[in-house]
Write a structure and sequence with these properties.
The protein has 5 helices and 7 strands. It is α+β, with helices and mostly antiparallel strands. A hairpin with an 8-residue loop joins strand 5 and strand 6.
Length: 151
């Protein structure tokens, strides 16, 4: 397969937000973002009895960082690798095999929200993002940057 493309730009940032496990907590955070015209592009919720960890990818990380600080919302940030899977599920196995063959460890992964008719996007948190980006790109996968998601 021909080489993929590595978008040049900022790395994709994921925010992990720590919320009390109560009705409306996630809705409140999303409302703060929507009021600032920030779109949530990806979302993963890990729930427990006491707390909830919400992982999210957004259209404007700088604004979100400032909003979370201004509203005293506890959060952390990590770099993600976002891969375009134009063939959807048919591309998934090949993508995972590529990472396996390169011995790249996947800490977690989740799909991003896309519009009908567009490619599937999968976010990965890897033990070595730079190496993962190189391996995937050289094996025909398009690895996106934040600017690709914020358009």
């Amino acid at each position: 397969m021909a080489g993929g493309t590595l978008s040049t730009g900022s790395s994709v940032r994921q925010f992990s937000v720590f919320l009390q496990n109560r009705v409306g907590a996630l809705s409140s955070v999303v409302n703060i973002l929507e009021e600032a015209h920030v779109n949530v592009i990806g979302l993963s919720v890990v729930d427990s009895v006491d707390t909830t960890v919400v992982r999210m990818v957004v259209s404007d990380p700088e604004t979100v960082r400032a909003l979370f600080q201004a509203h005293a919302i506890p959060f952390t940030e990590v770099e993600l690798l976002v891969v375009d899977l134009p063939e959807g599920a048919a591309s998934l196995g090949r993508c995972l095999l590529t990472l396996l063959m390169a011995e790249v460890n996947i800490h977690f992964s989740y799909p991003l929200l896309t519009h009908p008719g567009q490619s599937s996007l999968l976010a990965f948190h890897l033990d070595d993002s730079d190496f993962g980006r190189t391996v995937l790109g050289s094996n025909g996968f398009k690895v996106l940057c934040q600017e690709d998601l914020s358009r």
